[in-house]
Amino acid sequence: MREFDVLVIGGGLNGLCAAWWLLRRGVKRVGLVERFTLGHDHGSSHGASRITRSAYADAVYVRLMQVAHAEAWPALEADAATRLIHRRDACLFGPNGGPFQDYLDALAGIDVDVETLDPAEARRRFPVFRFPGDLGVLHDRTAGIVAAADTIAALARIVRAGATVIEGATVLGVDPISRVVDTQDGPLRAERIIVTAGAWAGRLLPGLAGRLTPVRQTVVHLAVDGDAAAFPLWAWRGLGDFYYGLPSFQRPGIKAAKHVLDGPPALDPDAPVDAPETRDVLAFLEEHLVSPPREVLATERCLYTVTDDEDFVLDHHPASAAVTVGAGFSGHGFKFGPLTGRILAELCLDGETTVAPFEAARARFGWGA
Questions:
Q1: Of 17, 59, 108, 237, which sits most exposed with the smallest number of CB within 10 A?
Q2: Is the pTM here over 0.70, yes or no?
Q3: Is residue 285 pLDDT above 50, yes or no?
Q4: Which domain holds residue 194?
C-alpha cells in the first residue's frame, strides 16, 4: 500500500492550491490523486480566464478577498514566476435596493477601493453599457482578469516537482478512521487527507451529499463591434438573476454567462452534456450593451458544485480531524483558490488557520453549517 503524509483527493484548482501550500510548509510525502488528468475540462477549473474583484454582497467575502489579493495571489505569482492577475477595472450594477443593496452594506466600513456611481457617471466611465433606469453602480478598482489556464499550469508544474501525482485514478471511497483511500488501482493510505473532489465530493463523503448540488453552466464567447479588449469586467445583480462578463482572455471577443442562483437541477457529473442554452445571455446583452454582440463565436461548459447559500465548505470531517474537506465553491471560488488552498493546508496540519477573516466566521464554513 502506498503511503503519504498528506494525500489530496482532486486535482482541480483547490486541490492543486492545497498541495502547493503543503509543499511550502515542508511536508515531505505529499500525494495528489486525480480521476482525470491535471488541467482536464470535466469540472470547474478549466478555461482561459476568471474574474477577481472585491465587490461582494457579504462582508466576510470582502475581507477574505483582501487577504487573497494582498497575500495569497502574490505568493503564487512569486512561486510560479508568472503574472496570473491582469488588472482591469470592473463595474457591478443592478436595480437600487434588493440584492444590490447587500453589496453596499457589505462594503460599508471596509477600506477597499470600490466607489458608488450614479448611472450618468457610470455611462461616462463604462461607455459600452446603457445603464438604463434607476440603477446602482459600483466601480471596483481592485478587480482583474485571472489567467485561469496559466494558473492551473503553474500549479501543476510546482506540484509535480514536489509531490507524487497520480492521474487517471478513480477514488471509490474514503475511510476517515483508517485514513485508507480506495481507488480502482488499489488502496492508498495517508496520515492526513484533504478532499477537494468537486462535483464528486458528495459521492466520497455521503454526509455532505445533501448540501452539494452539481449543476452545469454555459459560458458564451461573442463577437462585438470595436475593441473587445477595452471591455470592463462586469456583473449584473438583478432581483432574481446574475449575469457577468469580461474580455475573452487570449482569444477574440467577449465572454459572458448567466450564473444560476436559485434551484439548480441536480445532475450526475458523469452524464452526457446537453447542448448549451445561450438565449438568456444574448437577451440580457441586447438590452444592456450600447452595441449588442454580432455573433456567437463559441460556448464552454463547466460543472459547478453549489451549496444552498453559496458558502464554501472548509472543515474537518466530523468523524476525524485527520480528514479536511474543501467543497461547494459554487462557481465563485476560483478567485479565492490560493487562499482556500492555504486554509485547507493549515486546517489539515494545524487544526486552525492564520487567516483572521476565516477564523472570525469559521462556523459558517463548517461541515453542517
A1: 108
A2: yes
A3: yes
A4: 2-46+149-212+310-365
